[in-house]
Design brief:
about 250 residues, alpha/beta, 7-stranded mixed sheet, 5 helices, 9 strands, about 35% helix, disordered N terminus
Length: about 250
């Protein structure tokens, strides 16, 4: 009987631990649930007059959620990612998607992660001005070229799109920023590398600028079959998109 009582007690303890763990896990799950913040898209006014257009000649766009309180002069800008196009065929296909035309983009975008306004989820930036720059040029916001073939016309104007968005944001308070973080993931992370120095120069003497590239570094190495796939692909992007060579 004594042994049975010991086993019963052990089982009860184990069950109690399980209940505590499950309860703790349920509590933790409840903590991370956040209300979705949906932010409306804005087209960049006057962009077309400077040639800052998407692949299909639609105007570029971004989403802005205004900062408040102590974060009113903090700005977080995030490049949208989404791969690249490196020739007429791939860019023509892309122009018929939300990654090539603002007319096909969701007009409302969920702001989560670094863009969240929940202090529990995003304690460092929740009350900053937070911007998502939509991606519609296929060249990490860095190209400046045009392709024409009969009735097919495409505009690879990523550099102009970047300029137009920043110019518009300056009018909306970016020019008075004190702290700024430029970020992006994948193709957006590569755009962060491309534009970090330029962005810092635009705000020099006004704001402290930091840049964070998330998964935006692509190594120039052979693939597992021994071929230079990465170099060949990005050479196509640079040439077709009309990147400025340094």
């Amino acid at each position: 009987m004594a042994r049975r009582r010991v086993r019963t007690w052990a089982a009860a303890v184990a069950t109690g631990v399980l209940v505590v763990v499950v309860a703790a896990a349920a509590s933790a799950a409840a903590v991370v649930v956040e209300e979705k913040l949906m932010v409306e898209m804005a087209l960049v006014p006057g962009a077309a007059s400077t040639g800052a257009v998407c692949l299909d000649r639609c105007p570029p766009a971004y989403h802005l959620h205004q900062g408040s309180g102590a974060g009113a002069r903090g700005w977080l800008l995030q490049f949208e990612g989404g791969g690249w196009c490196n020739d007429a065929r791939s860019c023509a296909g892309r122009a018929r998607t939300s990654l090539g035309s603002s007319s096909l983009m969701n007009k409302l975008e969920t702001f989560s992660g670094l863009l969240s306004n929940d202090p529990a989820m995003n304690p460092d930036f929740y009350n900053w001005n937070r911007v998502k720059m939509r991606y519609c040029d296929g060249g990490s916001f860095a190209g400046d070229s045009e392709f024409k073939n009969g009735s097919l016309v495409m505009y690879m104007r990523g550099q102009r799109i970047w300029d137009a968005i920043i110019t518009d944001l300056f009018l909306k308070g970016l020019a008075k920023a004190e702290k700024v973080l430029l970020s992006g993931c994948s193709a957006g992370g590569l755009a962060t590398f491309f534009h970090c120095d330029d962005f810092e120069k635009r705000l020099r003497g006004v704001a402290t600028v930091k840049c964070m590239s998330d998964a935006g570094f692509f190594l120039d190495v052979d693939d597992i079959s021994g071929h230079g796939t990465v170099r060949s692909f990005f050479n196509g992007v640079v040439d077709f998109q009309g990147f400025r060579r340094i």
